[in-house]
Write a structure and sequence with these properties.
about 200 residues, alpha+beta, Alkaline Phosphatase, subunit A, five-stranded mixed beta sheet, about 20% helix
């Protein structure tokens, strides 16, 4: 099995001129069978998980895109990596590894959804945002960028590419506003890797 297409969600990417599209374009691309090899999808603030700055629909929005992939031909060779871009002000009892003043902070959750992800698996490997880049390096057979991906792992502990592919199960995506949290941070960041 080889994965060779990338979709990324993040609200913090700069606008990339002509390459910036509305957050709903991914749904159209999936439905039309036009999913590009590499795409970045950015939810607006209202569809993020950022406390005090959203309408509570972030999880349902992500679920709707996961469902679109899962119920399409793309599912058979897709890895969806969902994480959050910051720790959100919540306490973490594990102190971060210090390499310099910019890199590691408190841990953030990471979820992998794929027909080849290990079911019910909890990784104890230290992954970081550079692991996403390292995963891209490995999948696309690219050289390291020489920074965050150079010492990162590639999520290989999270997959079993020899297993019988897992059938997709639709995720409930209830798009109704939820009560807002009073915390900080926790903007939704999600990453997809798939083939067309």
């Amino acid at each position: 099995m080889k994965l060779n297409c990338l979709i990324t969600f993040t609200p913090h990417l700069p606008r990339l001129g002509q390459r910036h599209y509305p957050q709903t374009k991914v749904l159209t691309d999936i439905a039309d069978g036009q999913l590009a090899q590499v795409s970045w999808v950015m939810p607006d603030g209202a569809d993020s998980d950022h406390p005090r700055g959203n309408k509570g629909t972030g999880p349902a929005w992500v679920a709707s895109v996961v469902n679109a992939i899962g119920n399409s031909p793309y599912w058979s060779n897709t890895a969806i990596i969902i994480t959050w871009d910051d720790w959100g002000g919540w306490y973490d009892h594990v102190p971060p590894t210090i390499y310099n003043s910019y890199e590691y902070g408190f841990r953030v959750p990471l979820i992998i959804v794929s027909p080849y992800s290990k079911q019910g698996y909890v990784s104890h490997v230290q992954h970081d945002f550079g692991s996403i880049v390292k995963f891209i390096d490995e999948v696309f057979d690219l050289p390291s960028l020489g920074y965050a991906d150079a010492r990162a792992d590639d999520f290989s502990d999270c997959f079993d590419l020899t297993q019988t592919p897992i059938a997709f199960q639709t995720i409930p995506a209830i798009l109704k506003p939820m009560r807002r949290s009073r915390g900080h941070g926790c903007m939704k960041f999600s990453f997809w890797l798939t083939t067309s």
